[in-house]
Amino acid sequence: MINTQGMVAETATKIYTDLCARDVPHEAEAGQYPQALWDALTENGLPLAWVSEANGGFGADHDEVFGAIWASAQAASPVPFAETLIANWMLDRAGLSPADGSASFALSGHTPSADIPFGMHADKIVLFDEAHHEISLFDNRVAVRSPEESLSPDGMTQFIFSGHLAEQSAKTDLSRRGIEALILTVRAVQMAAAMESALGLSIDYVTQREQFGRPLSKFQAIQQQLAVAASECAAATMAATQAASAIARHSDDPEQAWHEAVVAKVQIGHSVEAVTVPFHQVHGAMGYTQEYDLHHYTRRLWAWRDALGNEHLWSKRLGEALAVTSPDDIWKGVTTGQWVAS
Amino acid sequence: MQRFNFPVVQPDPALEDLRSELQAFLRQEREAGNFRPEPECWMASADPEFSRKMGKRGWIGLTWSSQYGGHDKSALERYIVTEETLRSGAPVAAHWIADRQHAPMLIAHGTEEQKLDILPRIAAGECYFAIGLSEPGAGSDLANVKTKAEKVPEGWKINGQKIWSSGAHMCHYMVALLRTSPADGRNRHVGLSQIMIDLSLPGVTIKPIVDLSGDAHFNEVYFEDVIVPDDCLLGEEGGGWKQVTGELAMERSGPERFLSSYITLETALYQLSGKMGSDSHARLGKLIASLRTLKGMSWGIANLLDQGVSPETEAALVKDLGNRLENDLTQQVRAMLNDLPSEDWSPDMRRIMNIGVLRSPPNTLRGGTTEVMRGITARQLGLR
């Protein structure tokens, strides 16, 4: 289970409960950005939770912050809270000050362009340049950007970066795997949380909707479908929690959490189809409408499972990494979560 | 909101020493030719000689008091032992069931005399138990059991039949769910009791049932006027249903529900070393992600059980996911092995793969079918 206790998680839960009721994601999508929600998060310093105290943040336990991310995803957060947390963490790990305002992030290999979630909303963009071990901060307005087709209501924007336009740049000790570990874990926690919420909607719907003179929930075919989906949700939460716990254990060297994060990515990425199909099926046509809430979760799940590449790509990466270690190493990883690096 | 209770528990380094000891022993036994690894070893691969060796080393009866021949260790240490023996495909079926569920049952409900007599023999790997739940008319509908125990001056007189009793032909006792009084109208859960039956008593007949692979590890067990003394009633008279369902969390959440076919994967990993193509990498990555996740869930439950919490729904979730996974594992490994010409498969690989395929159907049946597991989950979700 994700730890939702502690000041950071509880504050975030309260803010999302108060300011992100079910109409808010609908209004956001219609173009009414929930500024009050973002302001409340900022006033409480939550986007700085992963920034060290020396750098103006409050260096909260990783554990607690994952609880806050859980709350945001259960509310179908239409503001880039998780993205700003990640971006500020990257800046902090290069000794740079946190972003002024909201932020999103990109990992760049050798190309100067990247697809960025919340790209049209975030004030700043943080880029990891793998080739130069550098983290750079850009103002959103100076980058060349164009909205991409996106599965998620949060949007995806393509950016073209010109190095000389960066506001700040600094070397970082983070490796690509270290950054991947954190991003994949954040997405894993968001996906597990969204699945739980969508399961809740499905249970409510089938217990209220009647056909053939009785609630849908009384049909065994419906019960068994949702029981299978619930087992996938439970597995997703476990995988996300194991990854979050590995990140918390290895906060100084997140690369050590890479395997647990990839396990979560692969497990949950595959679960998305296994849950969104029955969730939509039991909702009938109602679940396919814009008016109903289900798509706030399912569209985000479809987008998040693609983050940094889809589950098929990451299954292969994990398999490749494991295949060069020994069967003893693999067994040790499965049973204890201590993976031998490859 | 988080619907299910699966705590994430970090591995305890102290447990890892025990793991190393197990690994060394199992490697040595296998290399000495004392066993041939098999999938589903905990159900179908029994060797009393091997069980006695495990007993001598203190790896049976870990969780109970040394007063009764146990080793005063935690359920987590027992978990490590079961996990390592499953990984090795070792012949542990003889003692598995007694160690897992009947010894704890005797500790909870047995007389002092029974505990002193039987528990040390279980811990020594010498005394085995069979499960007496299913009957010809009571499979998934367990409450339909008809085998009767009737009160007589000498104790209880038993008549009827149990079926699918794994290992009964080599077991010393069976703990059976029996009707000790009639159902109360439509409530069939009342009037059932758990009774321990010495299988060497007159009136007990055990007939093997041959499975589709030619093995005969399960049985029909007939009772004809079998008399057992009063103290063989375990727990409360009429409380059998509650006791049986209470044991299920322990029975359904252990590593045998998702690691039974791991030996197939591990054997293939040695075979495919350096030869895996990208399709196999993807299959391997997905399998390992699922195995690691299931381990987390099962380990979380083991920790709850160790604290005296018995989460029935979580156990049902592990069994459903785990059974699907272990059957899928066999299929994924079949596909992975295409990276190797079949004439290059080792004899062990072929044997293990064949056993894995042949032994896959009961995974999703025994200990409660997949459909029953989903029914339990659906009830917890508020759907029934």
TrEMBL record, chain A:
Residues 188-301 form the Acyl-CoA dehydrogenase/oxidase C-terminal domain. Keywords: FAD, Flavoprotein, Oxidoreductase. InterPro entries: AcylCo_DH-like_C (IPR036250), AcylCo_DH/oxidase_C (IPR009075), AcylCoA_DH/ox_N_sf (IPR037069), AcylCoA_DH/oxidase_NM_dom_sf (IPR009100). SUPFAM superfamilies: Acyl-CoA dehydrogenase C-terminal domain-like, Acyl-CoA dehydrogenase NM domain-like. Pfam families: Acyl-CoA_dh_1. Its cofactor is FAD. Belongs to the acyl-CoA dehydrogenase family. This is Acyl-CoA dehydrogenase/oxidase C-terminal domain-containing protein. The lineage of its organism: Bacteria, Pseudomonadati, Pseudomonadota, Alphaproteobacteria, Sphingomonadales.
From TrEMBL, chain B:
It holds the Pfam family Acyl-CoA_dh_N. It comes from the Bacteria. Residues 130-226 form the Acyl-CoA oxidase/dehydrogenase middle domain. SUPFAM superfamilies: Acyl-CoA dehydrogenase NM domain-like. Residues 16-126 form the Acyl-CoA dehydrogenase/oxidase N-terminal domain. Keywords: Oxidoreductase. This is Acyl-CoA dehydrogenase family protein.
